[in-house]
Amino acid sequence: MKDKNFIQDFGLFASLVVSMIGIGVFYSPALVAKYVGADGWIVAIITAAGIFLIMYMMYYLMKANNYEDIVVILGNIYGVALGRIISILYAIMMILALGISLRVFSEVITMFLLVNTPTEVILITMIFLGIFLSRGGLVNVVNFNELAFWMIFIPAILAFLLTLPTADFTNLLPVFSTVPVNYFKGSFELLFLLNGFSMAFILIPYVKKKERIGKILRRSSIFIGAFYGVTFILVAATLSVAQTRDTIFPTITMIQSITSRAGFLERWDSLIMAIWVIFYFTAFANTYYFSSYIAKHVFNLKDIKIASVIFLPVVYIAALFPESVVDVRNLKMGFIRMGFIGTLFVVIGITFLLSYIRKGRGVKNEN
């Protein structure tokens, strides 16, 4: 990266969006429906606001520290040793969350595309593809994200449009049908699925027009909220709330209904599934690159190619840890969620607060 500031506006926007959406769009309608019924779109709005707040705190943290590397920032605030420990724990939690999502992805593929393919083969293939893209560096990752954005969302929007003729939007009534706390519980679950926003730590220092970062973060948050909101609305309107709640992958079931209603779209669901492979791979590769990047700087490795191999066994074991995808759906992997949120609270919340206090003291001393 001879030119450090090489990421254009669209590169940052596309990278954040594809890093966050991933596999969660397949089964998040079922998770959210358990808490709020048909009001999933409200959860999407709350989560989008939360993501923007988190990313803006990340942006402030980077800006206040002259866009230094996140490992350097944590070292400056907590001390080198503790900063590196926090950094590697953050990377490990991201890898564990990635392993869980990889297991869900492999289950989707074996159920709908590669029925006779062992899960282990899919896991290993995806991991090595992620390592391959990570070894190319951030420039290649961003370029791939820009291409993948269009390959993902054009067919997705087409699929949404094809569900409209038979969607029954009365399924969404009544609105605000549950207690307020359930909306925040649903947002917590959705936030865990959208953990790709951590890529902002890697991307922001390399953005060319840094004065536009705040606007891009807002636009990406709005896009994420709108996409998930529309997904929740169409799934509930097409399948009903009860079916959404009881189906493991309601979004795929909704897409399959297009094929059953329109003979000229034979095997349309398989085409969509092939596109979603790119969707998940993009999110997977970005998260894997993030953890490899952190490991490279924590252990002072010369090349990210070495760092990318470190997490290979970790993500593989994490993917095999759940007994089935039902364990993931039924929230039996809650300890990973809590660990991720706890790490996020330290890396972003407490670090932001300490940085803000330190900057305020610096201003007072200058005066």
Short description:
By secondary structure, the protein is mostly helical. 77% of the residues lie in helices and 0% in strands.
CATH superfamily label: Hydantoin permease
Tally of helical segments: 17
Low-confidence stretches: none
CATH class annotation: Mainly Alpha
What is the CA-atom radius of gyration, in angstroms? 20 Å
Helical fraction equals: over 70%
Strand content: under 5%
- Strand and helix order: HHHHHHHHHHHHHHHHH
Count of spatially separate domains:
1
End-to-end C-alpha gap: 39 Å
Number of strands: 0
**How confident is the prediction overall: mean pLDDT?**
86
How can the largest sheet be summarized? none
- Class inferred from helices and paired strands: mainly alpha
Reported by name, the CATH topology is: Hydantoin permease
Q: Do you know the CATH architecture?
A: Orthogonal Bundle
Subcellular location: Membrane
Family: Belongs to the amino acid-polyamine-organocation (APC) superfamily. Spore germination protein (SGP) (TC 2.A.3.9) family.
Keywords: Germination, Membrane, Transmembrane, Transmembrane helix, Transport
Protein name: Spore germination protein AB
